TrEMBL record:
Principal location listed in the UniProt entry: membrane
UniProt source species: SAR92 clade bacterium
Protein name (Swiss-Prot/TrEMBL): Cation acetate symporter
GO molecular function: symporter activity
InterPro entries on file: Na/Glc_symporter_sf, Na/solute_symporter, Na/solute_symporter_CS, Na/solute_symporter_VC_2705, Sodium:Solute_Symporter
CDD domains: SLC5sbd_u4 (cd11480)
A GO cellular component entry from the record: plasma membrane
Short name of one Pfam family: SSF
Transmembrane stretches, start-end: 6-25, 75-95, 115-133, 153-170, 182-200, 248-270, 282-303, 403-431, 451-470, 476-496, 508-526, 538-559
Amino acid sequence: MSTQVLTYLFVGASFALYIGIAIWSRAGSTKDFYVAGGGVHPVVNGMATAADWMSAASFISMAGIISFIGRDGSVYLLGWTGGYVLLALLLAPYLRKFGRFTVPDFIGERYYSQAARIVAVVCLIFVSFTYVAGQMRGVGIVFSRFLEVEVNTGVIIGMAVVFMYAVLGGMKGITYTQVAQYCVLIFAYMVPAIFISIMITGNPIPQLGFGAEVTDGSGLSVLQKLDGVLLDLGFSAYTAGSKSTIDVFAITAALMFGTAGLPHVLVRFFTVPKVSDARLSAGYALVFIAILYTTAPAVASFARLNLVDTVHNTAYDEAPEWFGNWENTGLIAWQDKNDDGVMQYGAGAALLPAKPIFDVDGTRGSHGERLLNNKSTESANEVYIDRDIMVLANPEIAGLPGWVIALVAAGGVAAALSTAAGLLLVISSAISHDLLKQTLLPRITEKQELLYARLAAAVAVCIAGLFGIYPPAFVAQVVAFAFGLAAASLFPALLLGIFSKRANKEGAISGMLAGLVFTFAYIAYFKFVAPELNSAEYWLWGISPEGIGAIGMLLNFVIAMTISHLTAKPPATVQALVDNIRIPGGAKAAENH
């Protein structure tokens, strides 16, 4: 059976499973739609949280970006995993004890203000739509290669599937779908990693293979060989970092605190029966997440080694089949700069930036390559590689069986769709519950609220699709921006709401708006308004757009606390609420809430 047929079977079967689960667990009430009825077992919730968390950025892009930038890519590993410790310790149990449906629900009641609720909704929508852009791009990449359809068509198919189980099932359907998606994505990630680890090092455990000797008889470890290979090609050493210390610190902090402020992750802790279950869920989620995250550095290094071995100094007409397959997607390309018919891969840009990759007519050169209209003359490098393809192409590069390639396709789609569904649900919940039911239309019935929630989810799916068709950057970069926005806007309001009785509505509103506007403006300026200035010499204190959320968060804290101390204290009932959330003595009552 061909790889193409296997891919259709694997992806089609997974789609049928997800839609079947959505129909089986269709939400019948707003509580089902928002928090899955509040009765999800901690292990199930931990697995669903892991799938919700391990998006296309984790599955597709994280190892890819580490593969290209080496040690500097560790900020993603440190930030995204470290953030879960903060989430488990500082937020999850207290929010569950509060016992509401959404993050804006908590902020609206804690800060005794509809304005605060609306600002939280705005922040949530900014964060969620930024995040979902990365997921839909991931869906498009998987479909464009493995199902051989246009990227835009792949995004539309992904939208249709998400629409089915997010709109029908709500949180109840998404929870059980995400359990299935976790099983698919982790199996799809680990199987090729084990295969390739055995091929390169002889060790079946990728985490150990990462530090083992390669089996070519050189006596070098994987990292030593990779350093040598890359230095020979003009790159910097894989184990040498190029980012400044302050930028590494800022990016890691933005990712950590952004993790603890992500609304689609926080809402998962509203779905368990008891406060203690919220802590257990976070613990289980960490275990499930660690399986993939400890494997990613090995996958990244193996992929880069295999790429160099199969591409550099290879005649184009003798190139492996995978190169041509990915070339047809526009995510890899070759420009024969010296007209020798041999692919030269090395340091430097193969293409001019900010230009379309292929000619409109897709004409072919004398060697059969897709002709490019944007050749860079600044370097000898002839090969362009989109870093988002590294994990997906890895099994093909390594020559693994067709069923493994098909499995990776199904895993990539599962990772992207699981997070996209969670994000779309929090957007619809924020609109239907916080904006309509709690603010603009308080007299609507539960049936009407459920209808509005489904309509809001449908609209959000369409907007998410547009982001997938017109993505602003690499998947991991887009997601990093979302984390920065979450850290700068929602996290301080949540933390102060739990641990500070002095924090009031004026401070929270001012802090959220200041953090959001500052961070968004900084990212937009360097990424869209003046991308030619996006370098360390122009950044504020040498901090990149990916890390500026840490400064936005500090700005939020300072403004929130300053204004809170200059204005009236919160009412006594609110101060008592803070005590009740924090003090264990009220846990039993809260568990019965």
